[in-house]
Q: What sequence folds into this?
């Protein structure tokens, strides 16, 4: 896991160098046909990448998005009308049976279909009309890390190409170098969570995906009962459970979500929560007991690609501290067969 | 809260007696215009009702659905193309600022708009083109109960009317009586959770909403860190954290989701999880340490309306046992202002 975490700058660079051509070609074809709606089908880590894509499509492209409920197809046999819908299947292995079935059925039901997988020869790459490989190299750890950030970047480039851009912009060209700096910083103070049985992770907007993925990594590698909430959802009920010493990790990205996140952090501090921040503002990070001072700056739209890294380091460090094997969590395998 | 839990059979009956006319009229208008896609906007408990509606629209009506990310409108100012889209705002109070903004903006952006609120004079009822009242009477407890099941029934009737049905079917006409029987059964054995700090609630398909709502009720009234997963999502990672004595409540409804849920229950038992089932199969309930034997039968499509009740009783009972006030959770108010 730690080796694959460290490979991420290289993988991001490879996608930028080699991935644009396929993406541009698919985007041109899709623009000429017209896409009225997007449906994203994924599970686990890839489903968290889908949350990021939802914001990209809706905000940057103005196309409404739904996250597929695979069981609507696999167990309820829905025959949805999917004309003018782009269905995107995202799967590291490309072998998740239910996500594969969504892509297959969607194509029969009239959708434009696209798959994004790490394994180029996977079943899903053949099932969709368009296919983008992640170029992340073999991922051996069960807990996905480099394939997650690769998915985010590929999805960002897809939306860029659909907007008519001619190549990857400066905001993404800088990512490999910024990712290096993030990883060099490390997450110190993992020890404080040695006996934390549960934890809340929160963020907002584009980085809601980051909170979801942080919680998933903590659950699968460190067996901490971690739950992610958007800042708004947290305030609609769950915040009641947060009292003194309740551990909360708040991802506070730059940009438009920052104001609301700062308000939430103040509110949680008043409740006595034990806060850790992932944030680039030193003054804010210093005000709480723990966290990760983000050493770089980037636009909010691409920040999830960088802000994913500190939680990976936390999850990995905590698993090691608890003498768990983050590469092989109990009862999990690399390809999960669900229906 | 307990009084409002007990009012549910009466509220369901009132909706069946008085609600159909408005719903049929709106459905006729919408059918004549054509709806290609549905977007549901809600927060908290109402967002859980939206999960149920997603399955109804996709499975029974064949229309793809997305759950709105309100911040795409409120903080990122998305100008989505919403022609041919039905946007449904669901809010008990009708005053959630962000959900209200989604409905307002959606109408400007060309969507057909519908609001479902308990308060008929609310801002949201005026903002949408169509409006259905919940007819649940004033809800005083902060933790919503009767407005949740009212939302489920109204959404079910909407989909029935959109399918061309001429009136509420027998499967819903029986609900008030069946709900009485559910409530009479009670949830015994709440005591075992007195010192449970965390809990997983799981179900699948139509009843994924039930698991989400159960977790929310437990968090806001009993301060248990409860997290909901679909059976499939649980197997894509989070299951690793479930070892010996980990408390899990599994909602095992009748119908097509039952097979997968039974497999999951067997898997969780092998891991040594401390299982409680909400299920109508006595033999299955008897095999695990705790649970609620559902005393009635109903089709899967309407089961979330009945299966919501046992978790309400559990959350209320546990709050009382912990000497918490379920009517006024710390730091919450009836109308949550988020943006």
A:
């Amino acid at each position: 896991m730690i080796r694959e975490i460290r490979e991420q700058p290289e993988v991001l660079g490879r996608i930028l160098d080699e991935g644009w051509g396929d993406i541009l070609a698919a985007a041109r074809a899709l623009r000429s046909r017209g896409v009225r709606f997007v449906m994203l089908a994924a599970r686990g880590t890839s489903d968290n990448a889908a949350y990021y894509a939802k914001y990209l499509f809706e905000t940057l492209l103005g196309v409404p998005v739904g996250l597929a409920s695979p069981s609507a197809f696999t167990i309820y046999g829905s025959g949805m009308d999917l004309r003018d819908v782009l269905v995107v299947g995202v799967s590291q292995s490309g072998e998740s049976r239910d996500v594969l079935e969504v892509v297959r059925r969607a194509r029969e039901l009239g959708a434009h279909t696209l798959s994004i997988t790490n394994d180029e020869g996977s079943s899903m790459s053949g099932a969709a009309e368009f296919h983008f490989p992640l170029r992340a190299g073999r991922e051996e750890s069960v807990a996905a890390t480099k394939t997650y950030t690769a998915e985010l970047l590929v999805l960002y480039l897809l939306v860029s190409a659909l907007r008519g851009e001619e190549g990857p912009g400066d905001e993404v060209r800088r990512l490999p170098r910024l990712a290096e700096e993030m990883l060099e910083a490390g997450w110190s103070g993992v020890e404080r969570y040695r006996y934390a049985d549960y934890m809340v992770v929160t963020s907002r907007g584009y980085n809601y995906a980051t909170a979801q993925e942080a919680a998933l990594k903590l659950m699968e590698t460190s067996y901490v009962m971690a739950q992610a909430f958007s800042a708004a959802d947290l305030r609609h009920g769950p915040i009641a459970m947060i009292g003194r010493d309740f551990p909360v990790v708040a991802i506070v990205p730059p940009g438009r979500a920052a104001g609301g996140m700062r308000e939430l952090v103040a509110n949680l501090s008043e409740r006595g929560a034990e806060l850790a921040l992932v944030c680039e503002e030193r003054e804010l990070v210093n005000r709480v007991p723990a966290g990760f001072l983000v050493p770089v700056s980037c636009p909010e739209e691409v920040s999830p690609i960088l802000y994913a890294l500190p939680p990976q380091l936390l999850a990995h460090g905590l698993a090691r501290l608890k003498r768990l094997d983050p590469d092989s969590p109990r009862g999990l395998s690399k390809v999960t067969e669900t229906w």
